[in-house]
Each structure stands twice: as structure tokens, then as C-alpha cells.
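ingest -> validate -> predict -> emit
validate: passed (alphabet ok, no gaps, 143 aa)
predict: started
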Amino acid sequence: MEEIKQKSWLGRNWKWLLPVGGCLTIIILGVLAIGGIFFGVSKLITSSTPYNHAVERAFENQEVIRTLGEPLEAELLINGSINYENDDGQANFKIPISGPNGKARIVVIGTKTYGVWSYEKLFVQIKESRKEINLIDKEQEGI
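emit:
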């Protein structure tokens, strides 16, 4: 009696496994690349002077605290951009923040000239009411 040897699972399924595995690998690498870019841009913005200044001003503002409650938290999904070139730069981004009483966003539009940041717009916009709370101190516009 002659014994018939059956092919292994890989031998029987390699024709569909190769394209599906290749596509999954490309998708996974794409997701990792996009995540890396997102993390890098977020890290660049969150470590910047305009971001830190805006968050500090918002979290110390009594009107913001009364409206949103404490503790306030900055969220990770920052929308916008920041550019540097030597001692000059531009910042234009929005930082989502939240507290126990609601959500808002900090709007930051600024320019860095000769190493000094000045802010054209710096305010907290409350999500529900669309109310704007100014964070620019008229005495200290150039920081």
C-alpha cells in the first residue's frame, strides 16, 4: 500500500497568504509611519514656547477656571502648525483643553521676531457658548 503525503498548511495556502501578508505588512508600516509623524509634530508643538505660554496663561486664568472647573487638562490632538527659521518663526495652532464643567480650545497665533514671541491672538474659546476669554496681557504683548 502506497502512502500519499499531504502538503503542509503553508504549502496548500501560500498563494493567498503571500499577497494578504504583504498587504497587511504595508498597512501596518503605513500606520506606524503616520503615528510617528503625528507624535513628532505633537512633540515639536508641545515643547515650544508658544504652547507652554498659552497653557500656563489659560490654566492660571480665573475666568477659565470658573467656566471649565478644575483640574484643567490639555489634550493631545493639537491642530495647526509652528515654523522656525533662525530667530524668527510663526505659530498658528489650537490646543483642546477640558475640565469637569466643559471643553474649550486655546487659540494661539503668534510671531517670533529676533527671538521674541508676540501674540496676535491668544484666547480660550469655550466650546458650548463660543465665548472667548482673552489671554493677552496688554502690558506684556512681546514675550
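The longest strand covers residues 88-99.
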